[in-house]
Design brief:
The protein is built from 7 helices and 6 strands; from the N terminus they run H-E-H-H-H-H-H-E-E-E-H-E-E. It is of the alpha/beta class. Helix 2 runs parallel beside helix 4 and helix 3 packs antiparallel against helix 4. The two termini are 15 Å apart.
């Protein structure tokens, strides 16, 4: 990419750009609730070992059995057993967390308050809830339905990319904190590109919110142009 700009110095100064949105995926797979419960239990075991807390029970053998059962959650004859395993894993995570909280000092309670609050939210969330947590180390990601036949949902962060119309040089990129419609992402991404004429992808149709942007971008074309 740098070589292209070196041979074509006018590439980064084009007056037309293309804006497209995509999903910046993370390594998250189904069933998310069961895997989150297993990760929470292992994290709680590490905290207990670090703080020198003796748990009444570790549930390691039972967790191993439930992990194997979760592999068959799509099997028509074994999905009910897999759902029971998922429910039991969440129950075990709550038992271990409450066992540790009873042994914590005031300093430890304050130190792990944010982490335990995240774990509590994961245990209480339901399938139909909004703003669900799909990852413990990246709780800000969300599920996106991009209308793909082979992939119903994508887990990650929506990102918008701005490239020049002729040479395809990336001149701006923005990651969006919330799952907004493609037409709602224009204002944020246009601040990263100082061009006057913009070609939008098929999903980024001009609606009422883009009227306010016409002062800075007087010519916005809603043609189905893709990168």
């Amino acid at each position: 990419m740098l070589r292209r700009v070196w041979h074509y110095p006018e590439a980064s100064n084009e007056s037309h750009v293309i804006i497209d949105s995509t999903a910046q995926e993370k390594h998250i797979t189904y069933p998310t609730d069961g895997k989150l419960a297993i990760k929470m239990i292992h994290a709680l075991h590490k905290i207990a070992k670090r703080e020198g807390i003796a748990l009444r029970r570790t549930y390691l053998k039972e967790i191993k059995e439930h992990r194997i059962t979760l592999r068959f959650f799509r099997h028509p004859k074994k999905k009910h057993k897999a759902r029971s395993a998922m429910k039991r894993l969440r129950t075990i995570a709550g038992i271990v967390m409450r066992d540790m909280q009873r042994s914590f000092t005031l300093e430890q309670i304050a130190f792990y308050a944010e982490q335990f609050s995240l774990y509590t939210k994961v245990l209480l969330q339901k399938r139909s809830d909004k703003d669900k947590i799909y990852s413990l180390h990246e709780p800000h990601i969300y599920a996106m339905a991009k209308g793909k036949d082979h992939k119903s949902y994508e887990f990650g962060v929506k990102a918008s990319v701005v490239t020049t119309y002729t040479h395809g040089i990336v001149v701006g990129a923005v990651a969006h904190e919330s799952n907004e419609h493609d037409s709602k992402t224009l204002k944020a991404v246009l601040t990263h590109a100082s061009h006057t004429d913009t070609h939008l992808s098929k999903g980024q149709r001009v609606i009422e919110d883009t009227v306010a942007l016409k002062r800075s971008t007087p010519h916005i074309f809603a043609s189905p142009v893709f990168i």
